[in-house]
Amino acid sequence: MSAPTARGGRPREERVDAAILSATRELLVEGGYAGLTVGAVAARAGIGKAAIYRRYETKQEMVFAAAVHGLDLESPPDLGSLRAELEWLTEVIAATLSGPAVAGALGGLLADMSDDAVVSRMRETFVAHQRANVTAVLDRAVARGELTSRPDAAVVHAMLLGPVFAWLFVLREPGDVRGFAPTLARMAAAALSA
Amino acid sequence: MSAPTARGGRPREERVDAAILSATRELLVEGGYAGLTVGAVAARAGIGKAAIYRRYETKQEMVFAAAVHGLDLESPPDLGSLRAELEWLTEVIAATLSGPAVAGALGGLLADMSDDAVVSRMRETFVAHQRANVTAVLDRAVARGELTSRPDAAVVHAMLLGPVFAWLFVLREPGDVRGFAPTLARMAAAALSA
Amino acid sequence: MSAPTARGGRPREERVDAAILSATRELLVEGGYAGLTVGAVAARAGIGKAAIYRRYETKQEMVFAAAVHGLDLESPPDLGSLRAELEWLTEVIAATLSGPAVAGALGGLLADMSDDAVVSRMRETFVAHQRANVTAVLDRAVARGELTSRPDAAVVHAMLLGPVFAWLFVLREPGDVRGFAPTLARMAAAALSA
Amino acid sequence: MSAPTARGGRPREERVDAAILSATRELLVEGGYAGLTVGAVAARAGIGKAAIYRRYETKQEMVFAAAVHGLDLESPPDLGSLRAELEWLTEVIAATLSGPAVAGALGGLLADMSDDAVVSRMRETFVAHQRANVTAVLDRAVARGELTSRPDAAVVHAMLLGPVFAWLFVLREPGDVRGFAPTLARMAAAALSA
DNA sequence: GTGTAACCGAGACGGTACGTCCTGTCTTGCC
DNA sequence: GGCAAGACAGGACGTACCGTCTCGGTTACAC
């Protein structure tokens, strides 16, 4: 979809790609996923709806691309201790999820997707990289001798991502999510070390 | 809404209340939040749409009432140890969230709500009771001497609810969520004891 | 309907009858037939909707009763000439049709009725009496020698009623309908005499 | 409404315009104005409701367009005498009003309209042309010397249209309206000549 | 007097239509 | 062939109204 063979004809304008993503992010901040309309994105971007559907098959794909695009691409640095690196991971996750566009989009994306291809893509893009980072951190901790055996990365990932997710989307504490990260990392480190 | 003073006039029929909730739950299971129609609920319940809108201002309120109604009302029994009780809590949370109606509804509800009254109601109903249960468990652990000081119940709640939530709605591992609960509870107990 | 056998039980309150008709007429003036609601009539009259439907089977019957009630019951006096009496008839018709409640109701009544009982009742009540008056006037003109044979009363009635009706409901000239009556009567007299 | 400036974009399809009008006329014949549903028109026409509301602001406008469209566009031929031409006019009016779609629509249209723009448009379209025809006929009669002065065309129009209108919508005589036209025209000619 | 039957205001009930909105596709004419 | 504009089919949404029914209570006539 995003890369149809594109043999001949006029090339797509990058300006349009950028305008779509940027307008989507704006409207996501202003009105959340609900209240975001493909027509409104087109109008805000000063383009036609067809230019959107030429790039994304559905509204969900567009929002996913806009919200997730370019997120969380760094790998965790070696900070010397499991706990410090877990804290780094948690903070990156919290920063990613609490960005205004992501916050507006994530709930909505979960809604419109049942079990189809989009959710798979999302898992691959959004989840796989984070899990790789978790794996790297755990491997380093084993190498350092902080852990005797490497726990399941998926479980550890859920333990870091989950509370942040719940905090933002269900609990919605008025307090800053960032302050939550160190506490969470400390508890996770303790749990793993035990 | 659900309880207008109602001085005179024909009283509302409980049969209708029940039929709405039950039809909503059925359709939630069959087609998820997306794909659930107010008209379809009315048709399935054998009532008119107006009877629904007399009770709930929006589709979201109806779904919320149907999905959350009567959930998780038991209090945690004294099982003798913090870990056992955390495990009980986690299993209740997992059972609640993975029930078919709730699973179909929760994502969708998060979507259509920005920050308005519905999300507050949801927090009050859905979250408050679980948090009270967490508090009770922690208090008992302090009384037993398992913990020296009572940690923040909100944080502990997030640590239990969050991973389950993430597992179900983001990670969507094919594996059973139930198997996840004991691991999670064990790690939480270790984290708290440290 | 209006007079069910009424064996036992509490008798109907005349206050309610009057309140219904009066509220209907008020709302007819304020908003026309469209925009008149049975619920609004009940509210304005300070009664329940059931009290209305106990008296009238449909909204149309109620409006008909309210608009037509007590209209046009006088018989045409002997004014000495056909033309004078035709003028009297035309003025009565114009006065009847241009009353505010009737004006608001008639179009609407015509709308909701296809060919059923209500239109028959309306014809009987509203039309029959006027036609009897036309017949009386024509008979007197024959007796006076102004006409050699009595024309069809239905045709003459249509020639008097019709232009007034069209003037009010289709043409809607801003000018006063009353000024139209003498001209119409004069032309009708000339047509009949020829 | 029917002609927005429409600079760019896909032009409206004539097929859709025609399908709307044709489906409306069919349903008007089948069930009258009451019993005609915008949804049913859309379904019968094989189009979406939005395509209707893009063209007509309300159901009334649509029905008006369908019932009145293309009616009565001929001008009265010179038939040599006032009476013959009046008869022609009356027959055209009767034919117009007694057409099945118009008969189903007119009463209903009168109902839903109070005094707003729709009734004005209707007057302009439906009435203005007929009145112009009346004027032409009267002018020819003056030129022929049949009339000494030209009477008010509005009054004459009311005298022709009105009885037909009343006959069809109020009196509803079972007899054929067509037979009514010559009598009416003869009487009108006599009245004008006097 | 005390039934009993029909009344009363209030308002919920099933049903149906309205007019608006949105999605994803298609069709113009211009570049 | 991409692009802006916008029409298309389809269908859900939330509102409004109709005519019926139910509640708790009142009022007259008959026994």
From TrEMBL, chains A, B, C, D:
It holds the Pfam family TetR_N. It comes from the Bacteria. Keywords: DNA-binding, Transcription, Transcription regulation. Residues 14-74 form the HTH tetR-type domain. InterPro entries: Homeodomain-like_sf (IPR009057), HTH-type_TetR-like_transc_reg (IPR050109), HTH_TetR (IPR001647), Tet_transcr_reg_TetR-rel_C_sf (IPR036271), TetR_C (IPR011075). PROSITE patterns: HTH_TETR_2 (PS50977). Gene3D superfamilies: Homeodomain-like, Tetracycline Repressor, domain 2. SUPFAM superfamilies: Homeodomain-like, Tetracyclin repressor-like, C-terminal domain. Signal peptide: none annotated. Residues 37-56 bind DNA. GO terms for molecular function: DNA-binding transcription factor activity; transcription cis-regulatory region binding. This is AcrR family transcriptional regulator.
